[in-house]
Structures are given as C-alpha cells and as structure tokens.
C-alpha cells in the first residue's frame, strides 16, 4: 500500500465513519515493514495500519514470509492478555492484505529517541520487567500445560525471521562478512584484530547460536530493542513482535540491557554539561542494573506463586533456572552490542555521534564490553556485574587511547 491506499483500505474496513475526512502518512522507519498513520481530520481519531510484504525494506535480498504479520498481530493480542497496558490495542487482522490495524501511540515517543534526548523514564524499569516476566515466565513449561505449549510452538514457528537473527546477530558480525557487515571505516582494522581474529570469542558465539536455534524456552519477542518500545514519563508500550518464536528467554532480556548501554554511550559522547552528563549516566546505570535485578526478583516471585510442574518446587530449582537466564542475557547483551556496531543494522545512538574520535571511543568501549559479556557471561549474575563490565571497558578504552 501507499498512503492513499491506506485511506481507501481504512474506509473499506469500516475503521472510520463514512463522512470521515481522512489523511494518511507512511511513518515506518524500521528495516522490514510499511506503517501508515490514518487520521480523521474532523474527529482527530487515528489508528495505525501495518503491512508486510515478501521482502524487507532494508534489502530485497531478505525474502521473508508475510505470515510474520499474523504472528505480530497474535503476539500483540497475547501481550494485552498477559501484560495489560504494556502493548498497543489491536483491532483487526487481514490475511489477504497481510495487514493489521492497531492503536496509534503517537502521544508517546520511540524510546531510542527519548533516550537520545536524555530524558529520564522513572517507570520504565518496573514496566519492562513486568512485561518480560508476564510474557516469558508464563509461556515456559514451568507455568504452561505442556501440550498447550507445544501447540503454540508450532503456531509461532518463524523460520524466515529466525534466519535473519541467526545471520545478522550470531554469525556475520564475528566472521568478517564483507558482503553485509558495515563497520565504521576508522574502526575496521581494530575490529578485524579484536573481533574477527579472536578464536575463543567465535567459539563462545557458536555456543550461543546453537542455543538460540534449539532451545524453545519461552515465547520471546525476538527484537526487543529501544526502537520497539514507545514511552513517556508515565507509560511504556512494547511493539513490533514479528520476530517472535519460542526461544531462549535471555534473548529478550539481553536486548533490553544492550540498548540501554547504547544510550549510555551516546550520553557520554554527546552531553556537554559535565554535571548533567554524570547524572544521566548514573540514571542509565541504575536502569541497566534495575532491569536485571527486578526481572530476577519478579521471575522468582512468579515461579513460587504459579509454577505447575511439581519438580519446580524443589529447593534451589527456581534460583538455578533464573541464574542461567541471567547468564544467557549477558551473552546476548554482548551479541547485540557487537552486531549493531559491526553488522548491517546500526543504531542512531552511535551513528549520530558527530565527533569522529568520540564515536570511535564509544564503539570500542562497547565492543570491549561485548567481548567480556560473551566470554565471561557466567560471572554476570546480577545488575551490578553488568554495570561494572561496561564501566571497566570504558576505563580500558581511555587507557588505550592515552597510549596511542
């Protein structure tokens, strides 16, 4: 569809009264789909229409099933059941057009933009950890009837989008894939030496990749970065779960943590007032630690309240399980940091840093941290360990910079 088609479609589907004066604009800034805001000039009422084709916007080389739109629609419905108030309302799905209509969240900001404006979001940690636990714990074998879960695994099989993740997150950033990797040119030689040339790192990435491909732990979002979250100082809404499938819980948690670290690097490189910069960095460090620690606490509470499996009630079983999830989250934090700097799909937190030296330093700091998160993920069991790794990488990069 084009914007005029979206108007005709909205009228045909009866989303607005017959006398509505509709206007439409294409607002999608993602890599895959087309997103239209349709608004009635008379009433001010608006909604979003999202459509997916057989190729991704980022490249025609990515041929992907339009069934991802059905998956996204059903996931958003599920989110409204499991975590009410933390996802947009959805109205209707059209299998023929591979499109669905949902609530317009234009009163909120994309979280990545809000963080780049250095806004504090006082409720985000509580909101996102509630969302993570409600949508992840309650789709595990611990909490679900096994037959129901297995039926859902089949319904949410998502091979095309999983392949994108397997390539862009787990493989290409660590294998010098010159065809699609896109490192910042001044950093290319450093990346070749520090990332491509590290055999131990590649071995640990391989372990994480096999886990992603084989572990149907819970129904994960699959792309939960700060571009997939709308926020303001009071609300949080999660969008874009088209990558959803049954995979490792740590993939969602690690993505949230890594993208807060991109915001941390951006603030450190772009905020000129020292007092304001230090204050905002401290808030982000608290948010990073808070996501890990509040997730852990809420996950354990849900387990002790609602675990169905009798073996789950054993001493230490819940704690062992969540420890492993946090360790997995650390590994994914490293993967996400690396792939957004080296791979095809960058983040504006980093690419918008206009000073070349500051961008170079920000990238190298995050890549140093990424290696530790992957190689030493087993020692990351609480939020303070995540923050410590980030700050240590920053100090190491400062020392390396002085030696040059």
From TrEMBL:
Keywords: ATP-binding, Kinase, Nucleotide-binding, Transferase. One of its GO terms (biological process) is methionine biosynthetic process. Transmembrane segments: none annotated. It comes from the Bacteria. Coiled coil: none annotated. Its EC number is 2.7.1.100. GO terms for molecular function: ATP binding; S-methyl-5-thioribose kinase activity. Residues 25-265 form the Aminoglycoside phosphotransferase domain. Gene3D superfamilies: 3.90.1200.10, Phosphorylase Kinase, domain 1 (3.30.200.20). It holds the Pfam family APH. Belongs to the methylthioribose kinase family. NCBIfam families: MTRK. Homodimer. This is S-methyl-5-thioribose kinase.
């Amino acid at each position: 569809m084009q914007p005029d088609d979206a108007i005709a479609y909205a009228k045909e589907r009866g989303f607005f009264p017959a006398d509505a004066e509709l206007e439409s604009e294409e607002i999608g800034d993602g890599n895959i789909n087309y997103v239209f805001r349709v608004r009635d000039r008379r009433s001010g009422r608006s909604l979003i229409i999202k459509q997916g084709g057989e190729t991704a916007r980022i490249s025609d080389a990515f041929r992907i099933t339009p069934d991802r739109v059905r998956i996204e629609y059903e996931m958003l419905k599920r989110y409204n059941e499991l975590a009410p108030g933390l996802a947009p309302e959805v109205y209707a799905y059209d299998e023929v057009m591979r499109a669905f209509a949902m609530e317009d969240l234009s009163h909120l900001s994309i979280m990545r933009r809000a963080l780049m404006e250095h806004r504090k979001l006082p409720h985000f940690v509580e909101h996102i950890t509630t969302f993570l636990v409600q949508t992840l714990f309650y789709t595990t074998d611990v909490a679900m009837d096994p037959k129901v879960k297995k039926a859902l695994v089949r319904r949410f099989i998502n091979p095309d989008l999983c392949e994108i993740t397997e390539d862009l997150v787990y493989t290409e950033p660590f294998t010098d894939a010159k065809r699609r990797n896109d490192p910042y040119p001044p950093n290319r030689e450093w990346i070749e030496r520090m990332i491509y040339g590290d055999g131990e790192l590649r071995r640990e990435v391989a372990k994480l990749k096999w886990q992603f491909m084989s572990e149907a732990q819970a129904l994960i979002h699959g792309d939960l970065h700060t571009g997939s979250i709308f926020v303001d100082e009071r609300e949080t809404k999660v969008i874009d779960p088209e990558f959803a499938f049954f995979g490792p819980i740590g993939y969602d948690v690690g993505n949230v943590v890594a993208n807060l670290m991109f915001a941390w690097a951006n603030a450190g490189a772009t905020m000129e007032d020292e007092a304001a910069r230090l204050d905002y960095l401290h808030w982000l460090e608290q948010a990073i630690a808070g996501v890990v620690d509040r997730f852990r606490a809420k996950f354990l509470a849900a387990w002790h309240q609602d675990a169905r499996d009798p073996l789950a009630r054993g001493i230490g079983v819940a704690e062992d399980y969540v420890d492993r999830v946090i360790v997995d989250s650390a590994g994914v934090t490293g993967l996400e940091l690396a792939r957004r700097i080296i791979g095809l799909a960058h983040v504006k937190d980093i690419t918008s840093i206009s000073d070349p030296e500051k961008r170079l330093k920000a990238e190298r700091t995050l890549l140093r941290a990424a290696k530790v998160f992957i190689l030493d993920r087993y020692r990351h069991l609480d939020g303070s360990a995540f923050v410590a790794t980030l700050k240590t990488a920053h100090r190491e990069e400062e020392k390396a910079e002085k030696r040059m």
